[in-house]
Amino acid sequence: MKDMVEESNQKKKDLLKNVKTLIHTARKISKELGTNFATEAYDDLPLIELEILLKEQVDQLQHLKDQRLKYIEELLAKESEICKKIGAKIVGFNNALPSEQEIKEFENYLNIQEMEMTRLSDLFKDSRRSILKMMEDLQATPALNFERMVCHDHNNFVFSPSNMSLLRDLRERLKEQVDAAKSEAQEKKETLKALWDYLDEPAEHRQHFLETYTGYSRITLNALNVEIKRCKEKRSENVANYVKKVRCEIENYWKLCKFSELQKKSFTAMKCQTYTDDLLTLHEMEAESLKKYYNNNKKIFELLDEWEIQFEKLKELDQRANDPDRYHNRGGQLLMEEKERKAAEKKLPKLEAQLDSLIEDYEKLNKKAFTVHGLSLKEYMNEKRENYEVEKENLKLARKQAKDKSAKKTPLSTSKRTPGASMLRVTPASNRLRTPGPSNMSRMTPAAKRKLPYDVSPNTSNKKRMVSTEKHKPTLVVNKVRRSGRKKTRRSKNDTMLSVSSYGNFQEHLENRDELRSSILPEETVLRKGSNMMTIKTPMKTPMKTPLKPVRRKVVASTPAGSSNARSLRSTPRSPKIVATPH
Predict the structure, then answer these.
(1) Which residue ranges does the record annotate as region Disordered (predicted)?
(2) CA-CA distance, 173 to 181, in Å (whole number)?
């Protein structure tokens, strides 16, 4: 019995010892895991059940610990890989078994590092692709270890800050080489084309060369140098013509840059007649210098050309304003000119302000004055305005002198008078109307309308003249106004006598001469007497100059009551037209 009691006590002691050990282990693991292990709930349990329960909890806690340690190892391995790739320092954990909070912070850190690695990897791939393309275009091979690693061992490339800086420098250096090669190739091709044009090289040779050597590689540049050397050697055989061509180019740049004569004379080689390669080189250098000067200040010259255009437009509009014929235009020309004037007046100040600003920048940068035809901008513009004022004064003086000279030569008797009723004249007695016949027509003044023809006057002198000339004169038709060449007849101081035939003879004459019936004056009144004669008294008036365009009016002859005289009208003068010749 005693042995049984001792054995029971011993088992109890062993159970208590195991329980304490399990509780200690559980608390330790819980502490490592960052949790709290509570034992208050186990006070009422038997020792055997308590031992079994504690064993289960210790196993669970140990499993959690093992899982956490494994996950931590994975995180540390991932960190090591990322840090090795990006060349960063490994951070790790401060504790062997970090808490969940520390693990979360480490996870965030790894995510950031992973994103940085991805960014650097993409940047490296893009840079490497660009570097390979540029090296291929330049037909260059990697010479340095770093270049070889980028081109051939890119999998082991470390994205460290130093390596990424070297990679960026390599890319920039190759880009500069490509740009320089492009510019050099373009310049050499332009030089070569100019030489080809000068030497009249065949188009087949040009096309074959350009198709063979494309791009801007070192091989292409070397081929261009060889071809340029060949063309220059061929050109040196006839250097004089090429010097003359370059001189034309220099003169063109002188004009574009608005150089003065003094600036042009500073290039003394322009007048040299000894044509050598050195002279050609001097001309090419001068042409290149002028080209650079023009391109650097192209904006200034363009604005200056625009200013000159607007200034000349204002001058032209001022000259049009002095033209009296401009007021006869009814197509809106005056309004258009006024709009152009206002636009030009607005543009000039703006252009001058822009020019002042650009020239000020030029003078600050180059430490010298900018000149236009040897003058400053202000002096040049003032000179243009002063010259225009002098031109206007000279033009006014010339017009005044021409007007005075014309007034001295023009006699007072030739002054023009307005055609009116006073211009109507009656033929004097010494120049009486003749009857309409086969050879004679009535004379008319330019101011009167054409009158109907009358019969033959009984004047015997006129009859004799008619008989002698009637046989040889053709039939005439009046169809054209005579404007000049008529002699003025001397008027008699006495009243003018006009003989008028009877209306019957007049009507018979019209029936025989159909070609004369071009018009009839329906309202004209003919005064007749028994003797078929009218005596018309016309007051004396000063002879008038025949107007260029006669006034064609309808005039009615009227006789005052109680007067024995009547007015007679003269027919409108017309040039005769031959319609038939009598046989």
Answers:
(1) 399-422, 452-471, 537-583
(2) 12
